[in-house]
Structures are given as C-alpha cells and as structure tokens.
Amino acid sequence: MRVAESTRLVDLVQIRIDDFITEREPQLRTIAPELGEFAGFSRDLLAGGKRFRALFCYWGWQSVSAQGVGFDVTEDVSAEELPAVVSAATSLEFFHAAALVHDDIMDNSDTRRGRPSAHKRFETLHKQAHWLGSPRGFGESAGLLLGDLLLAWSDELFDGALRALSIPGASEAARAEFNLMRTEVTVGQYLDIVEENAWRTHPESELLPRAHRVIVYKSAKYSVEAPLAIGGALGGGTPKQLAALRAFGLPLGIAYQLRDDMLGVFGDPDVTGKPAGDDLREGKRTVLVALARTTLPANARSLLDELLGDPELDAHQITMLQGIIRDSGAIDKVERIIAHNVKLALSAMTDAPLSSSARAQLTQLATTVSQRAA
Asked: Rounded to whole angstroms, how far apart are CA atoms 90 and 49?
C-alpha cells in the first residue's frame, strides 16, 4: 500500500489551498477591507476534512498511468503533470466546501466540523457589530455568497489544471466529467429538499427508492465516482478504464453516504463535529428512515413522522427517536446494504484495466470510507 503517497497528496493539497487563498486575499482586501472575512472563513473551512475527493481524484489519475508514476519520479511526462493533478484535486475540495456552506444554510445547521457553520459566523459578525436588520438574514445571505465564491475559485483552480495538461483530449474529457458532477450534485441537493417536504404525497412503496435516488445524485457520484472519473480523464484514461473506475466508484459512494446517514443519527458529536441526531432535527428522509418506517408499528411510525424535522428536538426526544429506529431493525439492514455495495466496489477492482498500485490503494480507501466514524 502506498499510504505515504496518499499522505503526501493530502499535504500538497493543503499547501495548494493555503497558497491559493493567500494569493486571492489581497484582491479581496483591495476591493474592501471587510472582505478579508471571506478569505479567513474560507481558510478555516478548508483547513479540515478527510480529503477523500482529492484522494479519489489522484488515484483515478494514477490508475490509468502506464508506469504508475509517484511523487519521487521527475522524468516521466506524467510526473510533470502532477502539479496539474494536485490543482484539480484541490478544486474538488473547494467545490466540496462550497456545497457544505450551501447545505448548512438549507439544513439550518449551526455547526460544521466542530465549529460554527459559515452562515452562523456571519450572523455573529452582524450581532457583534450591532448592524441594522436581521442577523440571521445577513448570515444566510453572506453564506450563500461565500459558497458562490468558493464555487468560482473551484472552477478557477480546475481551469488552471486543465491548461497544464499535455495529453491529447484529456482537458476536454476532464472538463466534461467536472461539469457533469456539478449538475448532478446540484439537482441531487434539490431532490433531497423535495423529499423532506413532499414525502407524504408519494405512496409508501416509493419512499425507499426515492431516498436511494437522493443518495446517488446528492452524494455518491460527487463524493467518489466523479472524482475518480475526473482523475482518470486527466490521465487520458480509455473508456474501459473510466468504466472500471465508475463501476468501483458508484457503489462505494452509496456505501459512503449510507455511513454518513448512520452517523447523522447515531454519530458521536465529539468525533463528527456535529450535534447528536442532527439529521433528525433536519428531517432527512434517508434510506435509514425509509427502512425503519417499513417495519415500525403504526403508533411508532406516526411518532417518528411527527417529530422528524423538528428543529427544537431536545436530547430526550433525540434519544427516543434513536431508540425507535434502532428497534426497527433498520441499522442492521443499512449495514448489510453498505457491506453489499462495498463488495460490489471491490469486485469491480478485480482484473480491472488499472495499475496494480492504484487498485491496492483504492481497495484500502474502500474500507476507510465505509467504516469511518466521522
């Protein structure tokens, strides 16, 4: 396993993040001194995270490299393009940060990675300065704009990466994958809020497949499949290689989001950086919830439906809802679905037309993302 290589990639991405924001901060402050908050909040938000998207992008690129180029190689053409791959991987981290900022606003989520979410930080700024108007309204508006700025910076980084590529057709292929990712995650986010608001209007038989559809388009594709495909396209991957990466990435992305949904209900706040049962307060109509509802008696199902989505749920009510879901047997069902999807992903790596070192590292990442505690 080339664990050191992954660690080095994470370090290089963090350096690129810091350098990029440092380069852009004078531009912001030249416009107005108070715009320094945008740089500061961006820097704080991008200082944490597991860098899964960057790692999948990098190993997607490595997987189609004929010689399996590593960080210590400087003579091969692929090694010369490593900075471009790092910039592309970094752009995915900026895109993810933008999605988190927007997601926290839509979900009324006060915390992110153990700190106040971006819109809450802007709200606090308003309060401390004793400005006119609504602190909450200002915070949400400013948060939306920060998310938009992070999206613009993501695209700027990605464009820079594409200009540095020399493989014929790689830039066009990678750009197509990047554009598709942005469309899918945006409409996936919309499908998520649709389910939170319209689930009662659909037959019971449709709730589980609709929840699964949200998983695929809101998270699975952009968390794993798209970064892999983007990395493979950056390296000039063949259609068969990109198909193998997708066959691995989609089921693993589903397992990744199912684990995230479990943590959103049962995760340890000290590890996840978010309050216990946050998804319950936000009313997430996840596969976990859909499965629970299929086996609950009518009174327990009614109580779950009544309380789910109440932002004022107290600790006792959270514990009660956790118990209802646990007693339904949904946890074991979700764990089996996770294991099944990980198995599908791993089977796609068997004899895949990809470099052996990348296949080994992707196999290791499959375990990491599906069994994580945060």
From this structure: 12
Write down the pLDDT at residue 13: 97
How far is it, in rounded angstroms, from Cα 221 to Cα 218? 7
User: Residue 164: how many CA atoms within 13 Å on its side-chain side?
Assistant: 18
In this model, does residue 22 exceed pLDDT 80?
yes
Q: What is the CA radius of gyration of the chain?
A: 21
Report whether 82 contacts 71 (CB < 8 A): yes
Q: Is the pLDDT score of 75 beyond 60?
A: no
Q: How far apart are CA 110 and CA 122, in angstroms?
A: 12
Please say whether the beta carbons of 98 and 147 come within 8 A: yes
First-to-last alpha carbon distance for the chain, in angstroms, is 23
Q: CA angle at residue 226 from 221 to 228, to 5 degrees?
A: 125
φ, ψ of residue 237 in degrees (nearest 5): -60, 145
Average pLDDT over residues 9-14: 96
Q: Dihedrals φ, ψ of 110, to 5°? A: -85, -20
- Rounded CA gap, 357 and 192, in Å? 37
pTM of the full structure: 0.94
How many whole angstroms separate alpha carbon 254 and alpha carbon 217? 10
In tens, the pLDDT along 292-318 reads 999 999 999 999 999 999 999 999 999
Q: What is the CATH number of domain 3-370?
A: 1.10.600.10
The number of C-alpha atoms within 13 Å of 103 and in the hemisphere containing its C-beta is 19
Instruction: Categorise residue 171: left if φ over 0, alpha if ψ from -120 to 50, beta otherwise.
Output: alpha
